[in-house]
User: Which sequence fits this backbone?
């Protein structure tokens, strides 16, 4: 059994979802606009795609990469891979060709499933990923990429795969956002991933945690009899662990996952869907979602047609800060619980802040998550109120390592005094009342609206422009983005270039969220004798700079 809470659910996700499908064949599993797929249809389609993948030679622990938007096919492909005991890989659909190829090679991807509108970057990546056996294109109205297989045709030409005996030791692989510059595959056993989600899912439903798949199906039946089956709306892309986990936990309870139709976030669409589908839980990533949501509510009220939020009992945010003003704007308009969590692909939540209905946002504070600890550098526990700075650590259920990276695995997933921990490098203090005070990660990672950006990657892209001599990239506090990617640039003598030109140059090579929101030009960028960047200097320059794009100094 897995360490930690000890749920007893020693199963592969697919086995659990199949058990739910058997008892709720007619209940809706996933909804997007006019597309409404019940559990029987979901299981049938996932089984057919599993058969197609098996026909391509895939089996246990083979990697199925997904570069796709939030659609029913995305979740079907995840289900199908798990049915085969294979590993679906979450890839950011904003990646350009080189970024995509890097992760595909690292993951040893055998099949890549993608939406047709992303074909340009997929086509640019595939030639440098020798292990790829097939490309599978989800139809979104785009022409079929040469050499790709059509997703729907594969389903039509394959009979459903027979169900396999699976194990809680099967591997779930979740790729990080690249905190250290290179995305890493975090390896969970299914039993540990299920345990992380089951504890919250069942405790919220006031149900005993099941012991096996049949017991999980009985719990789902009991929940439906009480009229408390969840309908969840993950507003953020499924590439974020929060969205994927919210969906997985909802299915565990026999619930429905609802997706928005627009590919860019539209808060008015979200509230319309909440009304129509009677959504009970919403998953977001900080202020980039919460801000537009509050504005849309105010606009609807101003037009005399306020949205109906009465079905919503919980909004969960993770991955980026959620400001008190936006929390107040939501809390004032409904009776939902607001939950903000701090965590990582390597485990979490390390800290949780909760605003219950009828309570003041000002009274909410971050406290350690149930499985989180604060450790001194030597691994000894630090008591609340000690005043000492420590490292946030997670106890099991946690991953067992990084894919193909034993050295980094040994640094992050450590055993101290017989206890296993996940220690990602986040520093904090815990006050006597349990309040967690975050001090930041011991790296230079920029968190922009939940996306992780490593400065050196952007700096390298900037320096590829012939007019650029040197560059520093830092994160600057921002009300919308949490941190705005900001560049400090020096130019070659006699050369000129505009901010817009540099942004366009970076956008050709990197995902749009990595493009500097602002460029500050300086005559020279100082470095240490060892050639290291001086990021504190860069932040000071940005803080004292004039209008974006104008020279400083």
Assistant:
């Amino acid at each position: 059994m897995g360490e930690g809470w000890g749920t007893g659910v020693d199963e592969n996700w697919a086995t659990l979802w199949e058990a739910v499908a058997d008892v709720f064949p007619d209940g809706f599993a996933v909804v997007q606009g006019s597309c409404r797929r019940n559990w029987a249809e979901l299981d049938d389609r996932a089984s057919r795609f599993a058969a197609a993948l098996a026909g391509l030679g895939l089996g246990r622990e083979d990697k199925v990469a997904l570069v796709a938007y939030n659609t029913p096919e995305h979740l079907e492909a995840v289900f199908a891979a798990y049915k085969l005991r294979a590993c679906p890989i979450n890839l950011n659909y904003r990646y350009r060709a080189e970024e995509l190829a890097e992760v595909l090679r690292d993951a040893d991807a055998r099949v890549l499933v993608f939406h047709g509108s992303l074909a340009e970057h997929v086509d640019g990546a595939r030639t440098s990923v020798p292990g790829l056996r097939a490309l599978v294109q989800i139809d979104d109205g785009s022409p079929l990429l040469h050499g790709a297989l059509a997703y729907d045709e594969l389903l039509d030409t394959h009979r459903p795969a027979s169900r396999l005996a699976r194990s809680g030791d099967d591997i779930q692989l979740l790729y990080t956002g690249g905190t250290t510059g290179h995305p890493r595959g975090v390896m969970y056993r299914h039993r540990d991933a299920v345990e992380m989600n089951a504890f919250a899912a069942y405790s919220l439903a006031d149900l005993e945690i099941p012991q096996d798949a049949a017991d999980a199906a009985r719990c789902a039946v009991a929940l439906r009899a009480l009229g408390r089956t969840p309908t969840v709306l993950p507003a953020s892309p499924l590439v974020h662990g929060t969205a994927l986990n919210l969906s997985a936990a909802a299915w565990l309870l026999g619930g429905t996952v609802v997706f928005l139709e627009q590919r860019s976030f539209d808060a008015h669409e979200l509230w319309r869907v909440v009304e129509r589908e009677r959504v009970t839980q919403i998953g977001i990533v900080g202020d980039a979602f919460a801000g537009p949501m509050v504005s849309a509510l105010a606009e609807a009220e101003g037009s005399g047609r306020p949205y109906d939020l009465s079905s919503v009992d919980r909004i969960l945010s993770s991955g980026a800060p959620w400001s008190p003003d936006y929390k107040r704007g939501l809390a004032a308009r409904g009776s939902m619980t607001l939950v903000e969590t701090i965590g990582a692909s390597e485990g979490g939540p390390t800290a949780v802040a909760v605003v219950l209905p009828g309570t003041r946002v000002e009274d909410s504070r971050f406290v350690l998550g149930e499985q989180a600890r604060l450790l001194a550098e030597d691994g000894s526990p630090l008591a609340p109120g000690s005043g000492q700075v420590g490292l946030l650590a997670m106890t099991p259920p946690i991953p067992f390592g990084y894919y193909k990276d034993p050295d980094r695995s040994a640094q992050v997933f450590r055993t101290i005094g017989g206890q296993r921990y996940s220690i990602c490098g986040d520093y904090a203090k815990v006050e006597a009342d349990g309040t967690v005070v975050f001090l930041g990660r011991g790296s230079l990672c920029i968190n922009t609206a939940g996306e992780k950006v490593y400065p050196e990657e952007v700096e390298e892209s900037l320096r590829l422009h012939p007019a650029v001599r040197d560059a520093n990239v830092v994160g600057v506090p921002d009300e919308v983005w949490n941190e705005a990617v900001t560049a400090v640039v020096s130019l070659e003598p006699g050369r000129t270039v505009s901010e817009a030109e540099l942004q366009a140059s970076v956008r050709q090579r990197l995902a749009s969220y990595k493009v500097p929101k602002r460029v500050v030009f300086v005559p020279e960028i100082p470095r240490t004798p060892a050639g290291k960047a001086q990021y504190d200097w860069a932040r000071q320059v940005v803080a004292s700079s004039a209008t974006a794009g104008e020279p400083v100094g």
Notes: The two ends are 62 Å apart (CA to CA). The domain at 1-190 is CATH 3.40.50.980 (Rossmann fold).
